[in-house]
Amino acid sequence: MNKRTLWLTAVMVCAVLVLAAAGYGFDFSELESKVQMQTLDNGLKVIVMERHEAPVASFITYANVGGVNDPKGYTGLAHMFEHMAFKGTTTLGTTDLKDELKEMRVEDSIFALLKAERLKGRLADSAKIKQLEQAFSQAIDSAGQFVVPNAFDNIMEREGAVGTNAGTGMDQTIYMLSLPSNKVELWMAMESERFLNPVLREMYRERNVIAEERRQTLENNPIRRLLTAMTAAAFVAHPYHVPIVGYMSDIQNYTRAAALAYFKKYYVPSNMAIAVVGDVNPDDVFKLAKKYWGRIPYSPPPEPLNTVEPKQEGEREVILEDPAQPFLAIAWHIPAETDPDFPAIEAMMDHLGQGPTSMLYETMVKKDKIAADVASFAGYPGTKYPTLAVAYAIPASGHSNEECETAILGEIKKMQETPLSAEDVEHIKARAKAQFINSLTSNMGMAMRLATYEMRWGDWRELFRELDRINAVTADDIQRVANKYFTDENRTVAMLNTIQS
User: Fold this and answer.
1) Sign for the pseudo-dihedral over CA of 126, 128, 130, 132
2) What is the pLDDT of residues 77-102, one digit of tens each?
3) Is the model's pLDDT at 231 over the cut of 50?
4) For residues 206 and 188, what is the distance between their CA atoms, to the nearest angstrom?
5) Mean pLDDT computed over 254-275
6) Is the model's pLDDT at 18 over the cut of 80?
7) In which domain, by residue range, is 387 found?
8) Which sign, positive or negative, has the C-alpha torsion 411, 414, 415, 421?
């Protein structure tokens, strides 16, 4: 059986889960019984779920660290370390570790001098800076001659890996891939190695990659710039106000010492979890986890973030001018996803602006034709901490942001004054349950959810209580949260106004 056949088989089998749950009275007890978890002596949580439909397995490494944990002066460092995790270890990614480390120390020492001179501002010696920049460039090239590019990815792909990727969010950093199930030991060995003996090689070159990423995805994207400015206005204290990619001045001044200190603080087993879902034997997985991940010594988990966003006491407004088309976004403060009100807020956002049958689409796009597109959602830019619900609109030609703002607030006013019908509430729940169940059909989706619920909710079993939370939402709940959170003083309005170039 070839790889394509294996994956098609897995997809077909997983589709049965959706069909079985069509009535949304699905009993998760059988699925739950297939999940086991052990905590290693060093604090690492190891979650395993058996699914023997096809000889494949998906692997998640969940680090409980994200953009909110970036230190002052080094914003974006969580994202930077995600890149660094693919650069190899003391045994992988180099042709000569001893000489490479020697050249890396030269890199660090020259950059320290260069950074110190630049920080002198107007008193800096421009000739000295030019000389140090040339020396720094040469040092980077000297260290780079020992690098074996993409060593981790190349080995994994050669052994059948698919979907190798990673992602940094405000709340977490996740590493993922899928492999034939007879490659569990390979994954355990290599994945644990990059968190046991990381080498932050090519770090200074990678800074340039991230700087360019910031230019392309944020600075050259007017809508992203607006949303970043909106978030910065909405959060005055909580680190959700800092973009995940970081500020350019910080990116250009990352040091290897700062990155290593960050790694040692947050990438400790007691602050991490791994999840394995697929054609595996849990006892074998636990044994291999102890053998390989157990090599990493225990360190206490970092202290939780203690900054709390103060209550907003008046509407805030952000206006950007750009030759781009107009765009409107309105944000309201809402609680974290673990709050009992969150399911009702999600239900409200679904009915308000998700899909072509939503209130905003029906009124603003179809009926009044004042918007080309509209949508709403809950949980921006993260969900671990109190966050934002957002509604946005792209005004149609000849119409304005102000018209769209009035229309959005008018539709919310209707939800505040009149409870939804029982039929509407049932439709909302049906969509939510279908989306949730669909997210569990793949091995990767299940592994992602198990790790997230264990680390975010404190117990992976809460995953299997999600349908109960959705089912519990009532029309009164939706009306209550509409009145509680979607108030004038609790919102931030952001407008991108078009100017002539």
Assistant:
1) negative
2) 999 999 999 999 999 999 999 999 99
3) yes
4) 26
5) 96
6) no
7) 316-498
8) negative
pLDDT at residue 6 in the model: 38
**Total domains present in the chain:** 2
* Separation between Cα atoms, residue 461 and residue 451, nearest integer Å: 11
Shared domain for 327 and 286, answered yes or no, is no
Task: Give the Cα separation of 161 and 278 in Å (integer).
Answer: 14
- In this structure, are 327 and 187 located in the same domain? no
339 shares a domain with 481: yes
Residue 29 confidence (pLDDT):
85
Residues 322 and 259 in one domain: no
Residue 282, domain member (yes or no): yes
Host H or E run for residue 80: helix 77-84
Q: Region of 160 please: left (phi>0), alpha (psi -120 to 50) or beta.
A: left
Instruction: Give me the helix-helix angle, 203-214 and 126-144, nearest 10°.
Output: 110
Place of tokens 């990815």: 153
Predicted TM-score (pTM) of the model is 0.92
Residue 129 counted as domain residue? no
Q: Does residue 67 sit within a domain?
A: yes
Distance between CA 77 and CA 68 in Å, rounded? 10
Reply yes or no on whether the pLDDT at 354 is more than 60.
yes
- Strands ordered across the beta sheet of 327-334: 316-322, 491-498, 327-334, 387-395, 371-380
Domain shared by 245 and 326, yes or no:
no
Instruction: Note whether residue 18 is domain-resident.
Output: no
The pLDDT of residue 344 is: 98
Q: Are residues 363 and 473 in the same domain?
A: yes
pLDDT digits 0-9 by tens, 301-330: 999 999 999 999 999 999 999 999 999 999
CATH number at residue 192: 3.30.830.10
